[in-house]
Amino acid sequence: MRIGIGYDVHAFAEGRALVLGGVSIPHHQGLAGHSDADVAAHAVMDALLGALREGDIGALFPDTDPTWKGADSLELLSQVAALVAERGFRIVDVDTVIACEVPKLAPFRDGMRSALASAMGVVAAQVGVKATTAEGLGFVGREEGVAAYAVALLEEEAQIPGS
Ligand code: MG
């Protein structure tokens, strides 16, 4: 078994779509970033890469590389999930927390679970999504941005003796 943790922050910005956990969420602001700035998907990717001991998304998808400009983070998450399989591991479980003062995320939680799960090739039962506010404290509380935390549990695929 391997565990990994991921954390990411993106600032709110005008004129951007808000995409969290692969779901487009109606809001008057989105998040600034080189890709679609899906902070939840980014935290999940870093949790998976952490468990794999394969660096982080900044190394894998550098924001200096125009290839990833405006990238769909679920597409990047699928690539990370493929790397997990390539390295001989299986995704057992993923859990996330999204810290966000506005908008309310509860109505979108199951949609995010399904979208993240499908990008990783697992079922929604293997993916948790929780939302919390920061009670008005710090950058989240001041509605300046969104933070996301994720943990991932991987299991090494059994080696068949003699193979
Ligand atoms: Mg990010």
Would you kindly provide a written description of the structure presented here, covering whatever features stand out?
This protein is an alpha+beta fold and 163 residues long. It has 5 helices and 7 strands, in the order ββββαααβαβαβ. The strands form 2 sheets. The protein has a 5-stranded mixed sheet with strand order 4-1-7-5-6. Strands 2-3 form a two-stranded antiparallel sheet. α1 (39-52) packs parallel to α3 and α3 (73-86) crosses α4 (109-120). Magnesium ion binds next to β1 and α1.
Q: What is the average of the pLDDT values? A: 95
Q: How would you spell out the order of helices and strands?
A: EEEEHHHEHEHE
The small molecules bound here are: magnesium ion
Q: What gyration radius follows from the Cα positions, in whole Å? A: 16 Å
Structural class: alpha+beta
| Oligomerization | single chain
Roughly how many Å apart are the termini?
21 Å
The portion of residues forming beta strands comes to: 25-35%
**Helicity level:** 25-40%
Low-confidence stretches: none
Helix count from the secondary structure assignment: 5
Largest sheet: 5 strands, mixed
Strand order of the largest sheet: 4-1-7-5-6
Number of strands: 7
- Bulk shape: globular
